[in-house]
Amino acid sequence: MGRLMARLLPEPGPGRLLVLCTAVASLGNGLYVTGGAVYFVQIVGLSPGQVGLGLSVAGVLALPLGVPVGHIADRFGPRGTTALLALGKAVALVAAAFAHSFVAYLLVAAAHGAAEQSGHVARGALVSGVMGREGRVKLSAYMRSVFNGGFSLASLAAGLVIAAGSRGAYLALFWGNAVAMVLVAGLYLRLPRVPGRPRSGTRERRLAAAVRDVPYLLVAQVSGIARIGPTVLALGVPLWLVTHTDAPRALAAWLMLVNTLMVVFLQVRLARDADTVSGAARLQRITFLVLAAACATVTVTGTLPGAVAAAVLVGAAVLFTFGEIWGEAARWGLRYELAPAHAQGQYGGVFATGDALALIAGPTLVTTVPDRLGATGWLLLTALFLAALAAGGPAVRWAERTRVPEPVPEAKVPQPRHG
């Protein structure tokens, strides 16, 4: 048990406290994400399409907030900004309990999504400020491992609430998540304070610095393509399994169990080489190769006997998960290492724009293309990841060439004593 905890937790200190924040947040998130959509359909009376539209609108509206929120984190300090956004999420969850129409649901979903996505940006700057260059990528891996485990446990608990089906049980999900976020906000404030940066230059230039960094923007967009991989596994593969193969239907759910266990136990170990630009770039190349291989593997399952198709799909799920693990590690390394130390929040907000394709077009792409085109659709997804592989190296090298060296603090020279 001790070895297991050592693998899932960093050394005692600020890093472990950040992981604790992630664990508490993941439990609340798992409860809400799993049960919230069902609540709005079964209790409030919205259609599944309306719920899906609300989530999509929330995601789209949250994307442009990353840069200004990141700038606020840089200016006033990421610790207080992250805690404030956690409280904002708690307020949105409380409001969700009183949303009884589609318009009210849209407003709540937008507020919740804005606080959630902006919180990721501010927390990234907080991790960098608290852990420093040597520890931020490794801690990000710990946090993701713990988040996946906590989210999965909470999803199982939410399943019991869904089985009960009462309004009171569903509302307990909202209240529970809100309380969790208040607790998380308090835990953030126990971390060491990361000072903000004083004003420098005009407001327009400060806000535009990251947005005008075209090489960094390009790296963000290419890196974001890797996040289509988890969407393929969560949506595309189960739909394909059920409609185009003879594999057992229950396997569609079990594949995500394979994914969760792999992320929980392998994320920290496989992220070790991502704390430099060269290491992160290498992991990104491996990511796109593995994701392309996974898509090509699924291509053949439509013509295989049920048991064989099931075995091949499990192998593809393993490949997709390795791609997810390496892809996230590469994103952390490139996001942190290519951004200036004084603007980690603002640059983190810009890097988050790379999620746009996966967030907006990903679900439609991975479900519609294979369903309509069959094996050819999977080959097109393979080509997408190979194109990202071809673009990734030149994008990273361009970004490296255009970095401005960080100023080195002047050494303090002892003054001679007179007397």
Automatic annotation (TrEMBL):
UniProt keyword Transmembrane helix, yes or no: yes
The name this protein goes by in its record: MFS transporter
Stretches that traverse the bilayer: 17-41, 53-73, 85-108, 141-163, 169-189, 214-239, 251-271, 283-301, 307-326, 347-366, 378-396
Organism name: Streptomyces rameus
Chief location: membrane
Classification via Pfam families: MFS_1 (PF07690)
Membrane topology annotation: Multi-pass membrane protein
Cellular localisation: Cell membrane
Keywords: Cell membrane, Membrane, Transmembrane, Transmembrane helix, Transport
